[in-house]
UniProtKB/TrEMBL annotation:
Protein known as: Uncharacterized protein
UniProt keyword terms in alphabetical order: Membrane, Transmembrane, Transmembrane helix
Transmembrane segments: 69-94, 106-132
Species of the source: Mycoplasma miroungigenitalium
Length: 605
């Protein structure tokens, strides 16, 4: 069914969609609460008791801290009291050895100090043993009692909330988002049909080289136009500078003012550096959107963070850019600037190759929408966008769009307080909605994109196909890396996959290759000339990164239901295992069997 809903002015319409999503999130969490049948008030009462215990524990921790400070001072005074008679004795002995007569007054004062010191030592020791230590022991006992009571209350709170925690499962973000914005249809998996459509109809080349791994993948359609969100772990060999030092000494001779030859001790720290290969890893997230609109148009634009400038600074920049545009038109007759200089200055796609199709894409409404998005300081992220249009393929990259946003790690909700779980649930879903909304906002800003439907969408051609490298990598990324990594691995790893066979029952055999490095410590010796006029070999320790790899064969069977739909999800898993496609001996307790986000994976070797 073709959605009739359109977003004509994404920034102006954001608040209404945000409110709608907020309502959907609240209703969804309310349904989860009702389904779990937990006693919310009982948990609130237990949580209040826990927080009161926390206050008491902190109170007694502070008391213990003060008592321990008192102990430190008391011990210091005891040490000082012990040192006084020692120094008195040393003083008297020194007088005796020097045959100096010791006066009666000195003897009396020394005796008095000695007695007072002994009394102070005894008194402070008694205070430490009978008062301070006793109070510390009592305070620790009370604190430990409160901590034990707190642990019991926390266990009780978790028992109260476990029915709810057990049904907050992956898939909740997408389920709520689809309810808010049905025009964005989300795939359960990126299948080969979606990739084939992008490749054949939109010139998508793909990117599956061995130096990157697709850790998070979300595909779907927007008004029938296919899209892929790909969050990748990328790797390349860079360099690292290592530093070593060597301390040298030598003797030089000079003459003093009297003409006497004297020796002078000299020293210097020699420094040497070596540059060696070093593996670098980083994450990037991209959105690919296919569209038949303006199929011959190519351009790129980079973010310039213009939203960080004041209105007056933006006006000044636009006026300055007007002069740049005039010079560009003079130097390049093929380039014709739009009348809207503010748009040209903010968007900056001056490398465009097709003026007619550029104007077809960026109508006055589209220009207005884009300028609002890029200069926005209130709702979105401003100008953090890279946009490359390569014919029928649109590529976006945003600073605010990361793989963490696409992740659905439900362990973050493992808390004892119902209200804090609810607060975090609202926050996580708000961030997910806001991130995706503004990631697609440039697309919404351009009316012709929403008006141009894909051919396969118009004819409702929806076929299920097998999986592919992108989805394989996405699914195995949820498994512990140690399952695939070489046992000597000491760095991050890149997992790449290759199809082996189709085993039927939606089950495919796949080979996973883990590439990583082991580290061997080395030392280079670099010749450095010292201040003594000689060359010295300075040791420079460095790490050699040696490539290693391991191949693992797996069976992967896709699961169509989301974990959040717990009953259907469990039934599908049970049916999948009983079908025998994962191995005749497979059961849910098989140590080589893993449940990923959208699949069952069995390790074969």
């Amino acid at each position: 069914m073709i959605p009739t809903q359109t977003i004509d002015q994404p920034l102006d319409e954001y608040k209404s969609y945000e409110n709608k999503h907020k309502e959907n999130v609240e209703n969804f969490f309310k349904e989860l609460t009702e389904k779990s049948n937990i006693d919310v008030n009982a948990n609130r009462s237990t949580s209040d008791k826990i927080y009161k215990k926390d206050e008491l524990i902190n109170k007694w921790k502070n008391k213990l801290s003060k008592l321990r400070v008192g102990t430190a001072f008391n011990i210091l005074f005891i040490v000082l009291a012990c040192s006084l008679p020692v120094w008195t004795i040393i003083y008297l002995v020194h007088k005796g050895t020097e045959n100096i007569e010791i006066s009666t007054q000195t003897i009396l004062i020394s005796t008095a100090l000695f007695v007072l010191s002994i009394l102070a030592i005894v008194g402070l020791s008694v205070i430490q043993a009978l008062v301070i230590n006793k109070r510390i022991k009592s305070a620790e006992k009370i604190k430990n009692k409160f901590e034990t009571e707190r642990e019991e209350l926390v266990d009780e709170a978790y028992r109260q909330l476990n029915p709810l925690l057990n049904i907050i499962r992956p898939g909740y973000k997408i389920k709520i988002f689809k309810n808010t914005m049905p025009i964005l249809e989300m795939d359960r998996h990126l299948n080969i049909g979606r990739l084939r459509s992008l490749a054949q109809n939109y010139d998508f080349k793909g990117d599956t080289n061995h130096n990157q791994m697709h850790e998070r993948i979300q595909s779907g359609t927007i008004y029938g136009n296919p899209f892929i969100i790909s969050s990748r772990l990328l790797h390349e060999m860079g360099t690292k500078t290592y530093t070593g030092t060597l301390f040298i000494t030598w003797t030089e001779y000079s003459y003093d003012s009297n003409g006497k030859r004297v020796a002078v001790a000299c020293s210097e720290t020699l420094v040497a550096r070596v540059v060696k290969p070093f593996p670098e890893y980083w994450h990037k997230t991209y959105i690919y959107i296919g569209s038949q609109a303006a199929p011959d148009l190519y351009f790129t634009r980079n973010s310039n963070n213009i939203n960080n400038e004041s209105d007056s600074q933006i006006d000044k920049y636009v006026k300055k850019y007007d002069k740049i545009l005039k010079k560009m038109m003079k130097d390049n007759p093929q380039f014709t600037a739009l009348a809207n200089t503010e748009f040209e200055a903010c968007f900056g796609a001056t490398d465009r190759n097709h003026e007619q199709q550029f104007r077809l894409l960026f109508t006055p409404l589209a220009q207005q929408n884009i300028v609002k998005l890029l200069t926005d300081k209130k709702y979105g992220y401003g100008d953090d966008m890279f946009y490359g249009k390569y014919g029928k393929l649109n590529l976006f990259q945003f600073d605010h769009l990361t793989g963490e946003v696409l992740d659905e790690n439900v362990s973050i909700f493992r808390m004892f307080d119902y209200d804090k779980i609810k607060e975090l649930f609202y926050k996580v879903n708000h961030e997910y909605f806001k991130t995706l909304y503004f990631a697609f906002a440039p697309y919404f800003s351009i009316p012709i994109f929403q008006q141009t439907k894909a051919i396969e969408y118009i004819y409702n051609d929806k076929k299920e196909y097998d999986l592919n490298e992108y989805e394989y990598e996405h699914q195995i990324s949820y498994l512990p890396r140690m399952v695939f990594d070489h046992h000597d691995t000491q760095t991050q790893s890149i997992l790449k996959t290759s199809f082996i066979s189709n085993n039927g029952e939606d089950t495919e055999q796949v080979r996973v290759k883990s590439s990583s490095f082991k580290i061997k410590q080395r030392v280079d010796y670099v010749s450095v000339r010292g201040g003594d006029g000689h060359h010295h070999m300075v040791p420079v320790p460095w790490d050699e990164y040696i490539p290693i790899s391991k191949e693992t064969d797996i069976l992967i069977k896709k699961i169509q239901n989301y974990p959040i739909d717990i009953d259907d999800y469990k039934k599908e898993i049970s049916d999948s295992l009983s079908s025998g496609s994962m191995g005749i001996d497979t059961n849910i307790d098989d140590k080589d069997l893993f449940l990923s986000y959208g699949s069952i994976i069995k390790i074969l070797n």
